[in-house]
Amino acid sequence: MTVTVRALRPGVRSDFEAFVRVRDAALPFVMFTPHSLAYDVAQTHPDAHYRPLLAEQDGEAIGTAQVGLVHDSPEPGQGYVNVYVHPERVRHGAGTLLVRTAEEYLAGLGATKLFAWALDEPGNRAFAERRGYRASRSAHFFRLDLANGTLPPLRTPPPGVELRTGADFADDPRPLFELDSATLADEPSDVDYEFTDYEAWLKETWHQPLMSPELTTVAVVDGRPAAFSLARTDGSTRYGTAMTGTARAHRGRGLAKLAKNDSLHRARAAGFTHAFTGNDAGNGPMIAINTWFGYEICATEVRYVRELG
Asked: Model-level pTM?
């Protein structure tokens, strides 16, 4: 049975539905919908050369890859290739063909260093290492049962702090962009980012279909966002946190907990039953906050790096 790999066809909904089916089976902790994926393909910055790939066997989708360049880093030539195969269709050659196709595509764009995430399982790690990738950092996925779990009680903000929703910034979300940029700079990562393109942030974060300004909570001090918890939902049962962070000048006051707790309570009231988030394994403070909320690790990924040439 022959395995083939191709790019998704713009405007062909069945391609995007097939991609999401495989991703949900392989990595249910990260939200995708056909609409959000189609939006990403159309709106991701052109310098990223973003190309989702689909592996098929006799017409059935069995594997996926997200491929592109890290265009917003001061270091040129960095690319990413994240491959996920349906857990019931491994060892049919889909992963190998997806990696080969992705590497050829990125090398043609001038990439010299590739980053890839792989679930921390012996078979996945061996697969990556056989292809010349070396292990780097790791990250955890966390899950919280919103329907049956117990959230910490809501508390009144301290004097001088006001809680607002992301929707309150609909007319001018730039202050949230500035806070997002500042907190991202402190995130542990293999890659340095220059997060300065406001228009790209509007397209790729603020207007992304999964983004929920209504469930996003912002802690405001002296009229400026000091901490926030950016919320995403799949429009059904899943709620996720894209970023929770606090400006450096306001850390140590519990504002991130305050914002995230408010967002979680409102998500539960809105009918969402499962909450997901993710943290670099070295981000101790945020892991402690998520543990305090009752999140539990549901999977771990390892970041792999390969030098080309």
From this structure: 0.93
7's CB contacts (< 8 A; 6+ apart) are: 51, 52, 53, 54
Q: Pull the structure tokens for residue 124.
A: 């996945």
**What is d(CA 191, CA 286) in angstroms, rounded to the nearest whole number?**
19
- Scan for tokens 């349906």, then name that residue: 86
φ and ψ of 115, to 5 deg: -115, 140
CA dihedral 120, 123, 124, 129 (to 10 degrees): 110
Sheet holding 238-246, edge to edge: 3-7, 51-57, 60-69, 78-85, 113-119, 296-307, 134-145, 274-280, 238-246, 224-233, 217-221, 161-165
- The kind and range of the H/E element at 18 are helix 13-26
**Which two structure tokens, joined as six digits, stand for 13?**
């909904």
Rg (alpha carbons) of the chain, rounded to whole number: 20
Instruction: Count CB atoms within 10 A of the CB of residue 7.
Output: 15
Amino acid (1-letter code) at residue 2: T
Model confidence pLDDT, tens digit, residues 32-62? 999 999 999 999 999 999 999 999 999 999 9
Picking from 149, 117, 185, 121, the residue whose alpha carbon sits closest to that of residue 291 is 149
The domains found in the chain, sorted by start residue, are: 3-111 (3.40.630.30), 144-299 (3.40.630.30)
b vs e for 115-146, b when ≥16 Cβ sit within 10 Å of the residue's Cβ?
A: bbbbbbeeebbebbeebebeeeeebbbbbbeb
